[in-house]
Specification:
With 207 residues, the protein is an alpha+beta fold. The protein has a single domain, classed as Up-down Bundle (Four Helix Bundle (Hemerythrin (Met), subunit A)), CATH 1.20.120. It is elongated and about 65 Å long. It starts with a helix and ends with a helix. The relative contact order is 0.17. Keywords: Membrane, Transmembrane, Transmembrane helix.
């Protein structure tokens, strides 16, 4: 039962995280106070310069973080090291999410009495913890990048994809905690079973 709940948490968190990293408007900041309609929009894989009028934005220039020329860093629009690190961790986190879903499918099809089932559950728990940490690092790096290039970060500049990423981190954490509860319940049942079998036969017949 607990593993099904953990699986549901992981599916929801994975969907939210992938949706978040595929959008490019995590943070929107005003580039220059002099130019009131010029904005910088940051995402995991793209950085865009936008012009805005009456809260309606129009793309003027977008650059992909992956494979981009590091010389663009001199423009002050993004930080090359932090940007590439954030994108790399995001890709790794999404990949781990898919691997965990595949391992969960294997876990559902393994007989309960097989010892490898418990080992697989421990491995899934470890991967869930790594995924949780990776998703946390992604949006922390994104905020850090904005601060490094000299912009202030508050709730007014944060858009829904970043909040969705924060929510996915919470989902990964809940999946990890629920998996640990499931693991502990299995260990407790095994211990009680071993204690019961070690008792004399006439004592066991009383239960």
């Amino acid at each position: 039962m607990f593993f099904l709940i953990a699986f549901a948490w992981h599916v929801a968190a994975s969907f939210a995280f992938v949706l978040a990293i595929l959008t490019f408007n995590w943070i929107t900041v005003q580039i220059s106070p002099v130019s009131a309609n010029l904005f910088l929009q940051q995402g995991i894989f793209y950085v865009c310069t936008l012009t805005g009028k009456n809260s309606t934005y129009t793309n003027t220039q977008c650059a992909s973080i992956i494979g981009i020329d590091p010389a663009i860093n001199s423009t002050g629009r993004w930080d090359y090291k932090i940007g590439t690190a954030s994108a790399s961790v995001a890709i790794a986190c999404a990949g781990l999410s898919v691997i965990i879903l595949w391992l969960c499918g294997i876990y559902f099809n393994i007989h309960r009495k097989r010892k490898c089932r418990l080992c697989l559950l421990v491995f899934i728990s470890i991967l869930l913890f790594i995924t949780f940490c990776a998703s946390f690092v992604v949006w922390i790096l994104e905020i850090s990048e904005t601060l490094v290039i000299g912009y202030k970060v508050d709730r007014s500049v944060i858009n829904w994809p970043l909040w969705l990423a924060v929510g996915s981190t919470g989902g990964y954490l809940m999946a990890f905690i629920t998996t640990l509860i499931h693991l502990c319940s299995i260990m407790c049942r095994r211990r009680d079973r071993e204690v019961l079998y070690k008792q004399p036969e006439f004592t066991r017949n009383q239960f």
